[in-house]
Design brief:
The complex is a heterodimer. By secondary structure, chain A is mostly helical. Chain A has a domain of about 220 residues. Helices cover about 70% and strands about 0% of the residues of chain A. Chain A is built from 13 helices and two strands; from the N terminus they run ααααααββααααααα. A two-stranded antiparallel sheet of chain A has the order 1-2. In chain A, strand 1 and strand 2 form a beta hairpin. The longest helix of chain A has 27 residues. Chain A is globular, with a radius of gyration of 20 Å. Chain A starts with a helix and ends in a 26-residue tail after the last helix. The relative contact order of chain A is 0.17. The longest helix of chain B is centred in the N-terminal third of the chain and has 30 residues. In chain B, strand 1 and strand 2 form a beta hairpin. By secondary structure, chain B is an all-alpha fold. Chain B is about 75% helix and about 5% strand. In chain B, helix 1 packs across helix 9. Chain B has one domain. Classes of the chains: A mainly alpha, B mainly alpha. At the A-B interface, helix 4, helix 5, helix 11 and helix 13 of A face helix 3, helix 4, helix 9 and helix 11 of B.
Amino acid sequence: MTRKVLATAAALAAYLVAIPFLLRDSPYLLGVVTTASMLSFISLGVWLTFAIGRINIGQAAFALIGGYVTAVMTTAAGASFWLALPASGLIAALLALVIGWPILRLRGVYFAMLTLSLTEAVRLAALNLAGLTRGATGILNIPPPGPLALFGFVLVPGFSAGNEDLAFYYLAAGTLIAGLLLIYRIDRCRLGWIFRSLRQDEGLAAGIGIDVAKYRMAAFAICSGFAGIGGAFFTASQQSIYPSSFTVPDSIFFMLYCFLGGLSYVFGPVAGTFVLFLSFELLAELRQYQTLIYAMIMILAMLWLPNGLLSLRMAPAGLGRRIPTPPRRP
Amino acid sequence: MILGANYALIALGITLIFAIMGVLNFAHGEMYVLGGFVTYYLYGLFGLNYFLALLASAATVAAVGLAFERLFFRRVLRITTREESTMLLAAGTALLLDSLSLVVFGEKQRGVPPVAPGVYHVFNAFVPAGRVLIFVLTLGLIGAFLLFMQYTRPGRGLRAIAQDKEAAALMGVNLDRYRALGFAIGAALAGVAGGLLVTEFAVNAGAGTPITIKAFIMIMIGGAGVVSGAMLGAVVLGFAEAVGYFFIPGSVTYLLILVGVIVFLVFRPQGIMGRPWG
């Protein structure tokens, strides 16, 4: 127990103190870690839908929705970023409830294909609702987050040119830690067992008195809320959003990150995102061969580690717990 | 009509792979693009006979499909503990082919000269002869495929696996060999479709993903894993597209189609012809 606490504390210290300290002079590398953190956060949401046994390829749709909510709120309505960020998550989650009610009845391949189409549908909607989203030109010049004050007491100073990289880093890191704690908590409490029972057999779960529709919608809404917050973050950090900011390949990437990290571990999506995204950035030297080699790495990883990177038992203490896998149905 | 028939080829290929392997082939659009490029090089650049080029497209893409099946899918199907993994592997292969064709073929739009010169005059409408040829070829291929599945020994074996693979294995069907065959045929269909459509629409390296999405829509409408459903879905999508493009701008058409599909699946989750799944 003590060792676990120590290891977690060490990892946290490295993440929150050592990395920003070492990378303070290279905004590019810090930006890479920031992006990886936020992508991990979005992938964590996808992990939750994997936990209920659905393959969700629609995460980019909700990230795009969240991004546009923030963009519209901060430019047209002039609201603060700190109001827009949770609002983006909330609106994405609410929309997920509305859309999820019908589509969560689908299973397996149908659900996967439909969520994939959903990503495309949201992109087209953003392209065509020109009144709200300004169509293909996108929304530009989104102001950086201002100061966050509560009862006249400044909690977070405004993001300005000097401290921007570090500020976004800590925002992403804080969000990721909060998200990880939430998902970890969900996984460990009764809700986690309910989700796992849904994955194994929905009929049986209903038979022992679980409101299947309610819980799978809850999982989908949390998942999409994560995507909304992630989309809002990227909109603010890039100060722009286009219909093509989040598209089908992004959705597929989120799913792959989860998968390569290991679906049986809460820490899986984080590990998968960091390893894959960092290796992608390291391959940037190779120019046009970048995606090619990247794809090969991914396929090889799937061939040799079909149950995820963390099946190597490298999971940080306390987070790497195996969920009993169901026997494969004939 | 021509679009619908060609879509049917694509949908048939993806359906075949899905029915036999339980693998949703994400790389189908990319295979289609590959087929288009092979035809472009052989017919458009080197002036080879169009039919030979078409055959070469089919053979190349079938070889790619075979290699994927042998090297990747077989191993993962054997060792994985979760059924999702084959799908993710397919997504990985799609990415691989996509980037590969970008590196090899470049990002330029490629078109070929028409296959047959002249136009036919049918009921006050002018129909280019090349288009008629392609339509006839497509129908012929679909017919040949259906006859093959219905009446030949390998076709029977494939259908048996699609129905029940344990029972098929007990009846002496060599699962490994037939799976490879099914994957190769499915891929070849995508390759031929690419070779046929490259004469109508130009092909470029990024065209794969939209085609994959279209293929998914078709089998969602028709029902996954059912041959008749795939064809019906293709015809429905082809018509919806043609009518939509005529009346409203393109991207709105697709938005409406996608929304329509979602609403449709709420009422009939297994598609028109499909059996309940999962």
